[in-house]
């Protein structure tokens, strides 16, 4: 229900409008009356008014001044201006002040009703849009922690984002970090006490640990956290630019990490092991920082508990680099499942380019890439109930180890092409079989056939079946049914003594007149004329 305000310095105009229109039937729960601009502003402050109908020429506060006040304070209100012919040029200013509509006096009731009904529809549409937006934003806010967690998890796994893409996501997720500024990681491994907890209790403990970490780190760092695939809590830290630097940010990280261990032990009773990393560019080096922390936990902490380890100084070590394109998302397995053949080829190119870019890559890296690719090939074939050897042949699978990235790419691309051709052909064949099944069912059930019955027979959703049929044949299923029915009708009319209504019933038409109409559209003549001509 809406509320309307009628404004004019001539009382009889307002009073007449208030009683001459069926306001209640139009959906107005209250009609307010004002005899001056000041009185109108007072009522606007007291009531949730949706539409104002006001004269343009009033003393003290004119209609244009009233509109300006409304627009500055109640932007949702619609305003209808009333003006005489002599004031038309003056009324242009009302339009410039964003009046919703203006009407020339004298006003016909039906004219005013039409304008107001239109404004009511605008209001309803606007509030529905706003309500939908509000619901969307509420849902977004409710899922914001999960979205933040997922984005950081993807960066830890090696996902590549441009600076612009990342900055847009950070702004969208309300994260005050800056791309290209240094970050470090604090990786927290909950110990035995926490691993004994049930899932609900563990979620509460993790929430408590994250809150304690926020308190400890927030004075010096912007902090972004998530839970990784190992059930470790990961904290990405970036020095705040809105405070004076304390000197060595690494010392601040180490001090807060020690305090985190002590606070969690004292307040919760469980132990933590914490690994902090050196500094790297954000986001490009997040993956390598994370890998250094995970490696340190595996190599230097193992099953020990309550350990704090700083892996800042890695200059003396010469680790064996991993072949990152193999393991960064999207993975080959996922792209095979999605039939993303272009993505698969791009992934292969990225792997072999990385192998060729670094001359220090060993033959072992090439062998690793081959094993990974083979595993993806076997996975895809077996998941589709096929043996890989039947598709690509044993000679291709049994080739000797490759010595160069180019040979690896040549071999893998040949396998990929064979897989794609096989499953594309199989998909097309399966569609051919589907169309045959549909036609056979229709031909056997002309007396009673429907899209739902056909869909049930081939075990598909009717909408999907319709799309598939149109894609393969260029026709609708209903067109094929009509064609087959008319062809069958023509045969029955010539080769059987069945009467016209009996032919109609035989084909599933309950109304013979409707059957005659359809047959005439098909053959250009009535069924009887068709029969007579054939005799």
UniProtKB/TrEMBL annotation:
<dbReference type="Pfam" id="PF12833">
    <property type="entry name" value="HTH_18"/>
</dbReference>
<dbReference type="Pfam" id="PF00072">
    <property type="entry name" value="Response_reg"/>
</dbReference>
<dbReference type="InterPro" id="IPR011006">
    <property type="entry name" value="CheY-like_superfamily"/>
</dbReference>
<feature type="domain" description="Response regulatory">
    <location>
        <begin position="3"/>
        <end position="120"/>
    </location>
</feature>
<dbReference type="InterPro" id="IPR020449">
    <property type="entry name" value="Tscrpt_reg_AraC-type_HTH"/>
</dbReference>
<protein>
    <submittedName>
        <fullName>Response regulator</fullName>
    </submittedName>
</protein>
<keyword id="KW-0805">Transcription regulation</keyword>
<feature type="modified residue" description="4-aspartylphosphate">
    <location>
        <position position="55"/>
    </location>
</feature>
<keyword id="KW-0597">Phosphoprotein</keyword>
<feature type="domain" description="HTH araC/xylS-type">
    <location>
        <begin position="436"/>
        <end position="533"/>
    </location>
</feature>
<keyword id="KW-0238">DNA-binding</keyword>
<keyword id="KW-0902">Two-component regulatory system</keyword>
<keyword id="KW-0963">Cytoplasm</keyword>
<dbReference type="InterPro" id="IPR018062">
    <property type="entry name" value="HTH_AraC-typ_CS"/>
</dbReference>
<dbReference type="InterPro" id="IPR001789">
    <property type="entry name" value="Sig_transdc_resp-reg_receiver"/>
</dbReference>
<dbReference type="InterPro" id="IPR018060">
    <property type="entry name" value="HTH_AraC"/>
</dbReference>
<dbReference type="InterPro" id="IPR051552">
    <property type="entry name" value="HptR"/>
</dbReference>
<keyword id="KW-0804">Transcription</keyword>
<dbReference type="InterPro" id="IPR009057">
    <property type="entry name" value="Homeodomain-like_sf"/>
</dbReference>
